[in-house]
Amino acid sequence: MHWYFVNPYPHPHPRSKYEKKCGKLKWDRQTDGRTDGLTDAEESYSPLRCSQQFYGRWAGISSRVNRLRDSMKRYIFSASLVIATLLVWVNNIKLFGKYDSNTNQRTKALRVAGIPNNQKQVHHIFYLKVHKTGSSTVQNVFLRYGIDRNLTFVVPNNSTGYRNVISYTDTAIPGYNIIPPPKDKHFEMLCFHVIYNRTALDKILPNDTKYVAIVREPYLQFDSTLRYFKHVLGDGQNVSTFLKNPHLHKNEDVRGSFTNNRMAFEFDFPESLFRDFNSHKTQEYLKKLDEEFDVVLVNEYMEESIVLLRRILNWKVKDVIFLILNKNVLHTLDNTELEKRQLYRQYAKLDYALYEFFFERLWRQINIFGQDIFREISYFKSLRRSVENFCSTDSGPFIFVQNSTWSESFRVSRKDCDDMLRHENDYVDMILPRQYK
Predict the structure, then answer these.
(1) N or C: which end of the chain has fewer CB within 10 A?
(2) What whole-number distance in Å separates Cα of residue 325 and Cα of residue 314?
(3) pLDDT tens, 224-261?
(4) Stated pTM of the model
(5) d(CA 261, CA 249)
(6) Residues in the chain with pLDDT < 50?
(7) Is the Cα dihedral 356, 357, 358, 363 positive or negative?
């Protein structure tokens, strides 16, 4: 970029050919060859010549002032660049870390922000599969990756009656709700329904495990829950009736409720906050989660979240391609819908605090990577549309994806389409005989 400065003041005229002695001006004989002094006409203009003498002196002063002004412009421009650089640096500190300038704290903030610190693909992963947040779509990515690389999964032992659920109300406990790992092996990946509890999870997962979760706009998560678990409200109930007085329907035991800030419950918020919301204590717990989770995806920005996840895990583009599973109805944001959301916000304060906190953090993490990640997001969206079109039509055995800035070339086959649409129960059936021979 080039900067051009235009001087609004013209350069002073050249000095007059008159010698500047007012009242005694002499013609410069070298100019016109005269040797007999000034003519009568020239003598009669001596006042003019005096003014020219004054102008000549002013021209010298003006020239020096102009040079000084130009120098000041250069100094101001240089100072502006320095100030701009400092502002960017300070802003980056705000993005990197919520903490002060302490080196250890900022390093921790960078880790939480998702800046990769090595070139090795991450294989140790905990994924909090939160109900009705689009979590099955992301789970499918982890299941495919783990099976392709023969990783050892934390598998439910069917104590809940569901093959794909470790627990709706508790964390993972070996011998109780999960099958212990095979002999001479350790768990590498957990991506089935369970309640988050860091202390318990640290006992069964490696120290370098990356912790991942997903959230969704709370009202949409609530509405999806009601559509899926029709037994929650009973016959004859609807969302509007529920929201006019939700406490009539609230299960006093928060552990058994799917409508009382369910996302916050699965993130293991203190139960006291469900009974008595406290903004300060809520923010304290969110700061704890901020330090413990490496990535929290946002359903409404799934592709942006997945690209960020790919970079943090250092996976390949093909590893994270996905097809949307368990699609729900689209919502029209009319006045009635807005009224419902406002009512629900008053009820689900914990879920909204959770969602808004990690929504903001997602974009802080993305912005740290600069413009390149936005170009990758655009590329990934286009690629995913092509894969969706291929998988939904009978257009050949595979599509070839050319190499790009972010990926080597690869193929997407019909088998890949089948794997991206495969139900998690089918994956459990694949894992068990392979893992426990």
Answers:
(1) N
(2) 24
(3) 888 887 765 555 456 777 777 776 655 557 877 888 89
(4) 0.73
(5) 13
(6) 1-55, 58, 88-110, 112-114, 236
(7) positive
